[in-house]
Write a structure and sequence with these properties.
There is one protein chain. By secondary structure, the chain is of the alpha/beta class. 47% of the residues lie in helices and 16% in strands. The protein is built from nine helices and seven strands. β2, α2 and β3 form a beta-alpha-beta unit. α1 packs across α9 and α4 runs parallel beside α6. The chain is globular, with a radius of gyration of 17 Å. It starts with 9 loop residues before the first strand and ends in a 6-residue tail after the last strand. The mean pLDDT is 96. It binds NADP nicotinamide-adenine-dinucleotide phosphate (NAP). The site of NADP nicotinamide-adenine-dinucleotide phosphate has 29 residues, from α1 and α7.
């Protein structure tokens, strides 16, 4: 990635404390962006921001529980007082509460929809307007291949991820006249804390379904995100990019 690609941009990455979000934050920072690392716990986003600064990049930490619209609105208000505009928004924070539908509690449905999908609405509503005024912006929503295919035991998660894809396509149309692009990435199985919790049999089954015969690395997703956030991707909007070792073709 060219170092000039996202220079001098301000970027918000949610779920940047660990896993995919942290790799995206590091990648954008390497490309020159000032990255606001958002996560639920102060220690996790704090460590991510510190590590970026230690490597010579620019980063701040911001602890926000994205399941709260009020916390998101307050955070965005504070951000827009400090920075005239947030140019790049990566909605990556997400959780799973897996179960077969008849065993799924309503609160597991709601917490996954609220954290994974409704949060995107709040972030984009608060940060999208200054982007449209500036006539430059990049929004990347980290969905999942199960938002395209569905998955038994993940009705809540798949619905949230499919919702992110619908949101992405609708807003790509709404914001296109102002040169703000909106795209989604649909990762397959990526090696992170989220997938380390999975049963070994589930992992073996998943591996068998991946043509490239390995789980993805967080960097595989970060590279795609960095491209979509760069000037090089100015003619790309409303798309869903599967990064999954060939699982969904
Ligand atoms: P992860 O390792 O579990 O990390 C999740 C990150 O999200 C953490 O930084 C966590 O904050 C943050 N987060 C969770 N709930 C939050 C909340 N309520 N408020 C603020 N931050 C919150 O997850 P990952 O595997 O990197 O996944 C990242 C994204 O990719 C998710 O949206 C996930 O659905 C998607 N995805 C992952 C895979 C995969 O195979 N790993 C596949 C497809 C899609 P703390 O650090 O403070 O806990």
């Amino acid at each position: 990635m060219n170092e000039d690609t996202v220079k001098k941009r301000v970027a918000v990455v949610t779920g940047a404390g660990r896993g995919i979000g942290r790799a995206i934050a590091e990648s954008l920072a390497r490309d020159g962006a000032h990255v606001i690392c958002v996560s639920k716990s102060e220690s996790s986003c704090g460590a991510a921001a510190e590590s970026i600064r230690e490597q010579g990049g620019h980063a701040d930490a911001l602890a926000v529980d994205v399941s709260s619209g009020e916390q998101i609105r307050n955070a965005c208000e504070a951000l827009l007082e400090k920075h005239e505009c947030v140019d790049i928004l990566v909605n990556n924070a997400g959780i799973t509460r897996d179960n077969l539908l008849f065993r799924m509690e309503a609160e597991d449905w709601e917490s996954v929809i609220t954290t994974n999908l409704t949060s995107c609405f709040h972030w984009i509503k608060a940060l999208g307007r200054p982007m449209t005024r500036k006539r430059w912006g990049r929004i990347v929503n980290v969905a999942s291949v199960v938002g395209l295919t569905g998955n038994a035991g993940q009705a809540n998660y798949s619905a949230a991820k499919a919702g992110m894809i619908g949101l992405t396509k609708s807003l790509a149309r709404e914001f296109s006249a102002r040169s703000v692009t909106v795209n989604a990435i649909a990762p397959g199985f990526i090696d992170t804390d989220m997938t380390s919790e999975l049963d070994e049999r589930v992992k073996e089954g998943a591996l068998g379904a991946i043509p490239l015969k390995r789980f993805g690395k967080v960097e595989d997703i970060a590279e795609m995100a960095a491209f979509l956030c760069s000037d090089k991707a100015s003619y790309v909007t409303g798309q869903v990019f599967t990064v999954d070792g060939g699982m969904v073709m």
